[in-house]
Amino acid sequence: MIPARRTVLRAVGAAALLGLGSGCARIPVDSGIDSRTLSGRSHPGAPYVRALPPEPGATAQEVLAGFVQAGVGSEDDFAVARAYLTEEASAQWDPTARVTIYSGSKELQVREESEGHLVLALQAVAMVDARGVRSALAGPTPRELAVAVEEVDGQWRLREVPDGIFLSEAAFESLYSPARLYFLDARETHLVPDHRWVPLRRGAAAVLEGLAAGPSAFLEEAVGSHVPQTTVISDDAIESGADGTARVEVPAEIAELASQERLLAMSQLEASLRSLRVLSGVRLVQDGQDVDLGEERRVERALPGHRPLAAGETGVVSLADASSAEDPPQLVPDLAELEIASPAIIQGGGLAAARSRDGSTVLIASTDGSVPLREAATGTGFVPPRVDGAGWVWTSVGSSAGALLALSGQGAEQDAKVDALWLSGREVRALDVAADDTRMLVLSGESGEARLELCAVVRDADGTPLSLTEPVLVRTFLSDVTQICWYDETAVVMLGTDPSSEELRAQVLDLSGAVEQLPVPAPDTVSLAGSVVAETVWAASGSGQLRRMDGEGWQDVEVSGRDPGFY
Question: Where is the GerMN domain (predicted)?
């Protein structure tokens, strides 16, 4: 059953609406829910919401309201919603084209625009396209739905409607689930998640269809896939057990691939299905037998490091034992005697980078002496460098000329500028590369406003950066954001200002749209870093006081340092 706190629209009676001759009708958006669990091959636990058909003698405005609210009922290709349309309009209407998510705290309004034409006004908060990619709007945004109506056998019906359906925030939360479609990085060593929203009734099937259709636009040039686009997914290939386990028949197009390609494709398939939160398990089946990819053979998701570090009084120090009174161990021998800031180390150790304290120099070194110390870039105002798993150090000057610097751990002759024309004229504040070596977060300032964007690094098969893709905007719920870093493969830790109180705040923002507020940081906090693997967040003040999140607050530690991070 759907949790009681969630409500879904149902069509309202004539008493709630005015007739066609009235200037405007107000439609309540919060009402009871009629639901049951679907059986058979539907997704386990998926809700069934009863969409109500048109009432005999309903006014044109009631028909429009009923059509909008019938978007909750997807059974039989939205048969109930189609009942509000003329035969011709029903044949042309595509309910899967998009979902407009509107605010459930505002009443919908219907007005007559002219004879035979109505307009429904709502406050949209997000859009989901046909591929399940969700775009959050900056806030509730007025949208209008214009329709044409006509009488058919004495009953009002809609003869012109836009494609797509409309759902309140509560209805969308009940009927859809976030999912991650996994593709492959350029070197085929990591799985790269692509965030989507799928209808719960077809959760597993929708995930498989999304994989076959390919990645979102911002990832297209940066990732690969061994799931053939010709893959045909049948609902009959998916069985849902009562315990929430999905038993999925490996499609023939994948089963017939060569050994290595088949392994990569099934790694994508399994990880994507496991991303559905309501599935308790996934079993891949081929010719009636369970398929075991084996821990050593499958390609895994890429998660951030768990070893904490910081810039010490000199050098890069470990925070693994921050309660000790002894001096913390140095992690990068060549930097041990230097005053540095913003250290970063490749996950697991090796290539390392840092800034000089004044930000005028980017230094490259290593934890094991494999990379000699060098001043890789000099100038003014470099943002904190970040190291990716392919052996590149990323940074930028604060005043961007439309490019980022990719500095090679192999030597200066391979250093490059990577175009990012969309950053031209902006102040770059921070950047971070995900553990999959593909997705990059870039925080910049434009006209005094913080702007967080997600793009992807296009590389050759050896991992050499070639370009950056056009970004997508990530909606933040803080103003004046000053720092961001990956927390896990789907979430970002950020430091900024509460727009209502103008006080310093820290939060974890999931790219699906969910927000977790962290304990209020001390007012002198200037930097933070978190890792879901380490299950903690570190913060630092400008004077070198380090704090670790402990339960519902921040605890001071004995070690002094700045710019915490993980590797």
Answer: 204-295
User: Are the C-beta atoms of 558 and 522 separated by less than 8 Å?
Assistant: no
One-letter amino acid for residue 499 of the chain: P
Give the model confidence (pLDDT) of 303-334 as tens digits.
Answer: 999 999 999 999 999 999 887 768 899 999 99
Q: Which two tokens stand for residue 353?
A: 């980078």
Q: Which strand ranges, in their side-by-side order, compose the sheet holding 536-541?
A: 525-531, 536-541, 545-550, 553-560
Rounded to an integer, what distance in angstroms lies between the CA atom of residue 311 and that of residue 544? 9
Residue recorded with tokens 């470990």: 318
Q: What is the per-residue burial (b if ≥16 Cβ within 10 Å, else e) of 200-237?
A: bbbbbbbbbbbbbebbbebbebbbbbbbbeebebeeeb
Give the helix/strand (H/E) hosting 62. helix 60-69
Both tokens of 41, joined, read: 């091959």
pLDDT (mean) for 395-400: 87
Tell me how far apart the alpha carbons of residues 28 and 110 are, in angstroms, rounded to a whole number. Answer: 11
Question: Which residue in 339, 337, 335, 338 sits closest to 352, CA to CA?
Answer: 335
Contact 127, 134 (CB under 8 A): yes
**CA 13 distance to own-chain centroid:** 39
Whole-number Cα distances in Å, 208 to 133, 196, 231, 263: 15, 12, 9, 16
Full DSSP string of 441-479: EEEEEETTEEEEEEEEEEE-TT--EEEEPPPEEEP-SSE
Domains of the chain as residue ranges with CATH: 14-175 (3.10.450), 177-290 (no CATH), 308-566 (2.120.10.30)
Terminal Cα distance for the chain, rounded? 42
CA distances from 249 to 199, 253, 258, 284 (A): 20, 11, 18, 6
Write down the H helix ranges in 247-295.
252-255, 259-274
Two tokens, residue 565: 């991070």
Identify the burial level of 501 via C-beta atoms within 10 angstroms of its C-beta, where 0-12 means exposed, 13-18 middle and 19 or more buried. exposed
The answer to whether 10 and 34 are in contact (CB under 8 A) is yes
Distance CA(409)–CA(406), nearest Å, equals 10
Strands 316-318 and 340-345: unpaired
CA 360 from centroid of its chain's CA atoms: 34
What is d(CA 6, CA 420) in angstroms, rounded to the nearest whole number?
Answer: 42
Looking at residue 432, what is its pLDDT?
A: 98
Question: Is residue 248 classed as helix, strand or coil in its secondary structure?
Answer: strand
Tokens 């058979």 appear where?
40
Q: What is the pLDDT of residues 162-216, one digit of tens each?
A: 999 999 999 998 899 999 999 999 999 999 999 999 998 888 888 988 999 999 9
Tokens of 313: 């009084």
Say whether 96 sits in a helix, a strand or coil.
coil
Contact 300, 562 (CB under 8 A): no
Query: What proportions of the chain, in percent to the nearest 5, are helix, strand and coil?
Result: 15, 45, 40
DSSP string, 17-52: S--TTSSEEEE-------EEE--TTSPTT-EEE-PP
